[in-house]
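Page 42, continued from yesterday. The earlier attempt failed because a stray header line got pasted into the input along with the sequence. Redoing it now with the clean sequence only.
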Amino acid sequence: MKNTILLISVLLTSFALGMYVHTFTANQSEKIQRQLSQTINNEKNNLKLGAFSVSLNVKDLTTSKIFYESLGFKVFAGGMEKNYLIMKNENALIGLFQGMFKGNILTFNPGWDENAKNIEKFDDVRTIQKSLKKKNIKLTSEADEKTTGPASLMLNDPDGNVILVDQHR
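This time it went through. Structure tokens are written below.
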């Protein structure tokens, strides 16, 4: 009987201790996540990335052109002879690229609006790069920080989607 009471006491104490440790570590984890979120939000988190488009790797440029035209897109830039078209529907942009890269890419163009017109205020790709590095975001390619003007950087989002920040001026 004493062994049973002792065993139950040990189990209850272990359970209570486990609950305390779990609650304590969960609270610490939440606290760390809040602090990290505040740190990121306190820094320059509103990067001006410029025009946004999706760059699609297409099998057949002509077929894709016809399809997107049926959705109301019109050729905006590029050319069939160059194996790529930039298509536009109001302020939506889609790049169609045949044989130029694998997969699809989310593309941002600092310094441009959706009409490829220069915008006055934008963050240079090198400024964006420094901000991303400061946040410990791994880049797969980088802009040379000693240069000015056109440059690009690449990274992957948590799901492996490729993001290209491509500055043309």
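Notes: The first strand starts at residue 51 and ends at 58.
Reminder to self: strip header lines before submitting.
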